[in-house]
Hints:
The complex is a heterodimer. Chain A has 11 helices and no strands. Chain A is mostly helical. The longest helix of chain A has 36 residues, at 70-105. Chain B is built from 13 helices and no strands. Chain B has a domain at 96-279: MetI-like (MetI-like fold, Orthogonal Bundle), CATH 1.10.3720.10.
Amino acid sequence: xxxxxxxxxxxxxxxxxxxxxxxxxxxxxxxxxxxxxxxxxxxxxxxxxxxxxxxxxxxxxxxxxxxxxxxxxxxxxxxxxxxxxxxxxxxxxxxxxxxxxxxxxxxxxxxxxxxxxxxxxxxxxxxxxxxxxxxxxxxxxxxxxxxxxxxxxxxxxxxxxxxxxxxxxxxxxxxxxxxxxxxxxxxxxxxxxxxxxxxxxxxxxxxxxxxxxxxxxxxxxxxxxxxxxxxxxxxxxxxxxxxxxxxxxxxxxxxxxxxxxxxxxxxxxxxxxxxxxx
Amino acid sequence: xxxxxxxxxxxxxxxxxxxxxxxxxxxxxxxxxxxxxxxxxxxxxxxxxxxxxxxxxxxxxxxxxxxxxxxxxxxxxxxxxxxxxxxxxxxxxxxxxxxxxxxxxxxxxxxxxxxxxxxxxxxxxxxxxxxxxxxxxxxxxxxxxxxxxxxxxxxxxxxxxxxxxxxxxxxxxxxxxxxxxxxxxxxxxxxxxxxxxxxxxxxxxxxxxxxxxxxxxxxxxxxxxxxxxxxxxxxxxxxxxxxxxxxxxxxxxxxxxxxxxxxxxxxxxxxxxxxxxxxxxxxxxxxxxxxxxxxxxxxxxxxxxxxxxxxxxxx
Lengths: 278, 315
């Protein structure tokens, strides 16, 4: 490995992406938090006299096919995207890490649990997700379960590969010789070594879950369409795309900017936390 | 090599068995009685009883499970509850657009993404590299269905370059006509895969050229072009091949969304419609069939991987 010296300004270059993405994300989180202040109208208020309006002074992004203010719906929509994405990824990371530690550490668990997870991974994701939601019945809780299940195999595999390389290291052997229990070794010695890849995975996972959830809402699966959410807005506007593309346009831009910020954040963190990968 | 192939196929069969089990139990966890769900709350009790009998729901679960496995292995995948045709016939009539769309998008992604990644790695830290990296991040962040809808408006409605809806079958318009009708969906869905393949190729190239053997090749005076395109490229491309498998899986599985945007009557649409009609036998078959397709492509790609990089051992 060649060593590269840090040039002046390299520090800034190293952190610039994390800072830039962080500012954008902060704005999006503020938008979600202060949605009632920012929104100009009630996002659920239908108005049959003002349907499908083009952007104007009263409605800065126009109105949808029920006369609801699009700007307000997009502002409120950020809440749904962020809450779902964060909940799913926290759950998936916690469960996936436990499973990963288990299958990496115990051979018997590897045989059983990893087989099941590999099975889930072999299934076509979107089709599997809509099947699972239809079978479970719609509702936010079902959507959360479904998106978590879809994320588990990847995280478990990631942790498993880390565990497999770490558990052969001397300090683990040393802990074993000192009589540490398996549980203690797993959580106290091995888990801290896995944090960097998990942080990176968590950040990029947030963006990916927003995309998956938007695809499901676009198909009309999962969320109640009355609750403002970005995928749902595009679903309701898709039949009008040939006449009023702005209805889909703004919501899609909102998704894209958010996902982009998360993925740049993930890349930036990767460079900082794991310099071996570029 | 033969040993590798046999081991790989064995693993896939095991995986398929797990998938079959998952699919079997997925339909059994429907809250309440599936027959009542399918026919609705106010169906006659005799009808519900008949459907239960037809679906074999009256047997104990282990008996049902063994019967399901046996039927699937024998090739008897059951009949659709919606139109009473054999499920496989329904799938076959919808296969053409979906498979063509997947092949088309993957080809676009590979033909554009991989060279882009190679160039970005070659000119590392140049303006071209930064631009490429940034735009690939943008491409990966845009939802495919949204890109598709925007293309419908700008390329289809405004510029009238491509048809906005539907699919021309090969039998009607020839291969050219079929590809023409699929161009917009293919481009819209290839976008994020172009980006991810470009990034992955770039990372792999950078990884490989920092290896000692590349330095040795340079030190013994080989031309830079030969070092780069002959020694480094082959080793960098091996893991990229596995990533192509991931793209195929996402595209084939995500066909539902693409087909909804562009009104294409393919397998993805069939999966969606079957679910809306509560046609669970059809949906079981849809899932299983797509999984088999995916497992088969993955075996093929792993063999290619092994050929490119013989050091790979079976995990």
